[in-house]
C-alpha cells in the first residue's frame, strides 16, 4: 500500500434524509426533506464551515455524519470507513460532537466532572485514576478549574455549560469533531477564548472539524472552506476567502448582507427575501430558492440549476456563468 | 409616570454561597429596547428570572424596588404573579427546551397560554397561534402546530417560543438570547417584527444578548453587567462611542466583524476569567483582569456619571 493519496477525513456522496411527520391539525402525513443530495469531502486537518437558513438541515447533516441517523440514500465515510459499519466505541474514539443545547437531555443531578468522564467510562478501558487525571486536565483546559467540576449543570451559566460540552467532546482525544453551534451561547470574549482553544487543539492534535454556526464572522475566522445550505442542499461551497469576498449565489449574498455589524444607528436591513419562509415539506420546483430570490427569472421556477464548478466547490444558480 | 419596569438594587444569592446579582439597577420604559450584555455567567439570566420570580430552588432575591407598571412585584403573591406572567409580562427563555414541554404539541402549548389568561375559544386561540407562527416566519403553521418540540430544528423552536410569548400581547417582553439559534436573515426578520410591535403596542423590551451587532442596531439603552453588577449604562450611541468602564472597552474591542477576519491571528479576548464571588466580596470584580487596576480597586468603587444618563462603576475619572 502506498500513502500517496490521503483519504478525506469526512466524505459524503449524494446523501439524502427525509422525516415523516404527522399532518397534525391538517390530517395528512407529510415528508420533510432535511438533507437532499449532499456531496462533499473534508481533507484531514481541514475545517468545513456550514452556514444556512434555520431549519435547512445543518444539524441533520451533523447527526448523519456522527452516525446518529442513517441516511435514506447515499454514502458517508469517515477516514475511509463507512460510518454505519463501525461499532459505537470505535466511532466514539474517532469522531465526537459538540452540540447546541447539550444539557436538555442530561440528568440534572450529575456532577460536571462525571459528565465529562462519561465518554471515558463508556470505553471501559480506562482506570479510575486515569479518568480523574484526564478529566481534570480537560476541565482546566476549557477554563473550568478546581471546584467547578463538583457543581451540577444548573449551577453553571449557559456559557460555562458550553465549555463542559467541549471538554466532554475532547476528553477521548478524537480526530474529528462535529461542532453544532459550539459558541452561540457565549459572549464575544469567552467565545474568542473557546475558538482560540479549538484552533490550538486542531494545530496540536491535527483535528478535523465540521463547524456549524450562524455567526458568519466566526465561520470566516475558523473555516478553511464554507458550505452554504438552503432547504437541504448545498447551494454554494468555496474556500473561505472566496466565499466572503466573491459570493455568487443570491442566498449567500443575502446572508452576508443581513449581518449586523456593531454600528449604532444603522437599523436592521431588509435584504428583500420577503417574509415567506420555505416549507421543507413542500420543496419548490426548479430552483428551490426561487420564491424568495430577489433576481429570479421565469425559468427559475422550472429549470433545476446545475452545479457550476468552482475551485474547491461550486455554485447552484442558473444565472451565474 | 413611572417606568414600565423599575429595578433598583437587586440582589440574588444561591444558598449563601454564590452572589449571582449584586445591587443591579435598571429601568425599561414603554416602547423602549434596553439591552443587557456581559460576560457569560455575569448574572443576566438570573436577573431576568428574579424579575419574573422564577428563580431556581435555593435562589433568593431582595431589592430596594421592583415595580411593573407601578405595582410592587415584591408584594405580589404567587397567584398574583402567575396572573401577570405570560400575560402582561412575558419571557423568552435562553434554552427553549426548558420551557417547552416535550409531551405536548406546539399547538396545545400555545393555546393553553392564551386560554389561561383570556376568555377565548380554542378556535380563536388556534387562529392567533397560527397567525403568530406566520409572523415569526414559519410556513405551514398547521403542520407545526401538530408537531412536538423534538421534531423542530433549534431555530424553529426558538421562533415558537417568541410566538408563544406574544400570544397575550404583553406590555413587557424579557427576551433572553432570543435569536442566537437563528440564521441572520431570520434574525433580521424577527428583530423587525419586535420593532413593529414596539411601535404598535408600546412594548417594552428587555433584551439579553451577546451579539453587539444587535445591540448597536436596535437598542435605545445598554447596560453592561460584570460579576453580578451593572458596571456601565448609557444610551447606545454614547456607549459605543465613548465606553468608560475598562470591561466595556475590552468587550467592544473583541467583536469579530465579518469580511475582516484573519485566520493567522487569534480572536481578540479579555484574558482571565471571572472570579468566584460570594457574600462579603469587596472592591471591583474586574480587578484581576484590568490593566488599570491598583490597590484602591480592592475597596469600594465609586458610581460615577460621565454624562447625563451615562453611569459607570470604576475609580477612573470620566
Ligand atoms: N440555580 C443555581 N444555583 C447556583 N448558582 C447558580 C444557579 N443559577 C445560576 N447560578 C450562578 O449564577 C451566576 C449567573 O448565572 P447566569 O445564568 O445569570 O449568567 P448569564 O449572565 O446569563 O450567563 P450566560 O451569558 O452564559 O447565559 C453564574 O455564576 C451561575 O453559575
Ligand atoms: N426527528 C425529526 N422529526 C421530524 N422532522 C425533523 C426531525 N429532525 C429534524 N426535522 C426537520 O428537518 C428539518 C431540518 O432540521 P435541522 O435540525 O437539521 O435544521 P438546522 O439547519 O440544524 O436548523 P437550525 O439552524 O434551526 O438549528 C427541519 O424542517 C426539521 O423540522
Ligand atoms: S437559479 Fe434563479 S431563483 Fe435560483 S438563485 Fe439563481 S437566480 Fe435565484
Ligand atoms: S475600579 Fe479599578 S480594577 Fe475596576 S475597572 Fe476600574 S480601574 Fe479597573
Ligand atoms: Mg441545528
Ligand atoms: Mg444566560
List the helices and strands and how they pair.
The complex is a heterodimer of chains A (321) and B (318).
Chain A: E1 10-21, E2 30-42, E3 47-52, H1 58-65, E4 73-78, E5 81-82, H2 88-94, E6 95-98, H3 112-123, H4 128-141, H5 158-170, E7 176-180, H6 188-205, E8 208-212, H7 216-222, E9 225-230, E10 233-239, H8 240-245, H9 250-258, E11 308-310, E12 313-315
Parallel strand pairs in A: 3-8, 3-9, 6-7, 7-8
Antiparallel strand pairs in A: 1-2, 1-4, 4-5, 9-10, 10-12, 11-12
Helix pairs in contact in A: 3-4, 3-5, 4-5
Chain B: E1 5-14, E2 18-28, E3 33-38, H1 44-51, E4 59-62, E5 65-68, E6 71-72, H2 78-84, E7 89-92, H3 96-99, H4 106-117, H5 122-135, H6 141-145, H7 154-165, E8 172-176, H8 184-201, E9 204-208, H9 212-218, E10 221-226, E11 229-235, H10 236-241, H11 246-253, E12 303-307, E13 310-313
Parallel strand pairs in B: 3-9, 3-10, 7-8, 8-9
Antiparallel strand pairs in B: 1-2, 1-4, 1-5, 5-6, 10-11, 11-13, 12-13
* Most residues in contact, chain pair and counts: A-B, 78 and 83 residues
CATH secondary-structure class of chain A: Alpha Beta
Give the SSE string of chain A. Answer: EEEHEEHEHHHEHEHEEHHEE
| Helical residues, percent of chain A | 25-40%
Task: Note the total helix count of chain B.
Answer: 11
Ligand inventory reads:
adenosine-5'-triphosphate, iron/sulfur cluster, magnesium ion
Shape of chain B: globular
CATH fold annotation of the domain at 5-88 and 172-183 and 202-313 in chain B = Rossmann fold
Poorly predicted regions of chain B are none
Proportion of beta-strand residues of chain B? 15-25%
CATH arch. level architecture of the domain at 5-88 and 172-183 and 202-313 in chain B: 3-Layer(aba) Sandwich
Portion of residues in beta strands of chain A equals 15-25%
Structural class of chain B: alpha/beta
The structural domain count of chain A equals: 1
Mean pLDDT of chain A: 89
For the record, the CATH architecture of chain A stands as: 3-Layer(aba) Sandwich
Terminal CA distance of chain A: 42 Å
Largest beta sheet of chain B, briefly? Answer: 8 strands, mixed
Question: What is the topology, as strand order, of the major beta sheet of chain A?
Answer: 6-7-8-3-9-10-12-11
> Structural class of the secondary elements of chain A?
alpha/beta
Runs of chain A in which pLDDT lies below 50 for 5 or more consecutive residues are none
